[in-house]
Write a structure and sequence with these properties.
The protein has a three-stranded mixed sheet with strand order 1-2-3. The longest helix has 42 residues. α2 runs antiparallel to α3. Helix content is 71%, strand content 6%. The chain contains five helices and three strands, in the order αβααββαα. The model has no long low-confidence stretch (mean pLDDT 84). The chain is elongated and about 95 Å long. The protein is mainly alpha-helical. This is RteC protein. It comes from Flavobacterium sp. CFS9.
Amino acid sequence: MKRAKTYEMIDHFFNLDMRLKNIENLVLLNESENTQNKVLSSCNKCKCSYNKIELANLFYILMDERILYFDSNDAKKNRTSFQEFISENFTYNDNEGGQKMISAINRQFSECKGYTYKVKQIKFLNEFITVLQERKRRLESW
């Protein structure tokens, strides 16, 4: 009787061990796919020459002036949709000149709205207007 129980226990152990190995393989496969998806998703994102706050300024202005919108009736939903859209579809220029993924852009959007950052917004707008004026000059000279 003891032998039968011992064999039974060994059989259960090997079955459990095999199940655990299958689970480990699934986890490793899932981690590998997630890593590949992150690499692919960063390659498919639109790269921006602006830093994170400048990118937020650009989209905040376009949103605030109602040039672009997701929901024209609900300002909070519109803002949330914009932040998600930017995070999912853009990378920004970091201080070293490389592109970085955007995990969240809430703080930068809040800075765009705040009175304290008015000077930064005006500086951004002046630089952006200069780019647009240069573009207009090039078009006019064709």
